[in-house]
Amino acid sequence: MVNRTRIVRAALGLTMMLSLAACGPATASVKPGTMPEGGTFHGVWHSQQFGRMELCDSRGTVVGEYSKDTRHGRIKGTVQGDLLRFEWVEEKHVVRGRPNVMNGKGYFRLVTTEDGRYRIEGEWGYNEDEIGGGPWSANLIRGATPDNCYASVRKGGRASSQGDDPFGDEESEYADF
Known about the structure:
This protein is mainly β. The chain has a domain at 43-160: Lipocalin (Beta Barrel). The protein has one helix at residues 4-22, and strands spanning 43-47, 51-58, 61-68, 71-80, 83-95, 98-112, 118-126, 134-140, 153-155, 158-160. An eight-stranded antiparallel β-barrel has the order 1-2-3-4-5-6-7-8. Strand 2 (51-58) and strand 3 (61-68) form a beta hairpin. The chain is globular. The model is unreliable at 11-22, 151-166 and 170-177 (pLDDT under 50).
């Protein structure tokens, strides 16, 4: 006779393994749409949550920086239609010389407001998650241009940077800005 306790334990173990296998990064269920006429992620943006954001878009690859108060972050992502999916890395300086470093993923959708201005709306998450951290939105600052676009010169098939590479990736293939 089979031990009933053994069967129950085996069933619970199998259930737990299947539920863990189904777990993965939390991603947004958003699909790319059509980019608004004349729209681009390239520009200087103001975000209530994350301050001044400078995004540089070159042929669908976006790199940029943002800063507000004690936080400074970098973004790198890819555009499809009106959607930018990105990775972010942030340093928060609460104690001098000892930054708290965090990272994650997120997405922005470029939209046109009723008054004809551009706005990005999206979410961010920690580590491999694209959502779950909170909302992230920003308004384009008209007439402002990003000061620090990366990888302005290509040498030998690799991008060389005017400033620091935002992700420490010397092998990155950012196109000319």
